TrEMBL record:
InterPro entries according to UniProt: DNA/RNA_pol_sf
SUPFAM superfamilies, sorted: DNA/RNA polymerases
Biological processes per GO annotation: DNA biosynthetic process
Superkingdom per UniProt: Eukaryota
Protein's recorded name: Retrovirus-related Pol polyprotein from transposon 412
């Protein structure tokens, strides 16, 4: 591993960069999908906001004004309070 340090992330925000064309999503319907958010506790809401702010600051995600929407929830791990994951069920 010492010889290939450059191939490994130093932290969870070091995800690298792919040099390719942006993905194209081909829709099969004109129907807009916008699911309502799930009810969550104040504690979970604060954790989601904290993690989203960190992802925004790291440049991994960016603000969107898309008419499409999917609820956000936390997936829990033993070693961490929660890892942020986007759940989209159509």
């Amino acid at each position: 591993m010492e010889n290939h340090k450059h191939a490994f992330a130093k932290n969870k925000f070091e995800v690298g960069d792919i040099k390719c064309a942006p993905p194209k999503i081909i829709l099969t319907s004109e129907l807009l999908i916008a699911n309502r958010p799930y009810r969550i506790s104040h504690k979970d809401n604060a954790e989601i906001k904290k993690q989203l702010d960190a992802l925004l600051k790291a440049g991994i995600i960016k603000p969107s004004h898309s008419p499409y929407a999917a609820p956000t929830t936390l997936a829990f791990k033993k070693e961490d309070y929660g890892s942020h994951t986007i759940m989209c069920r159509l």
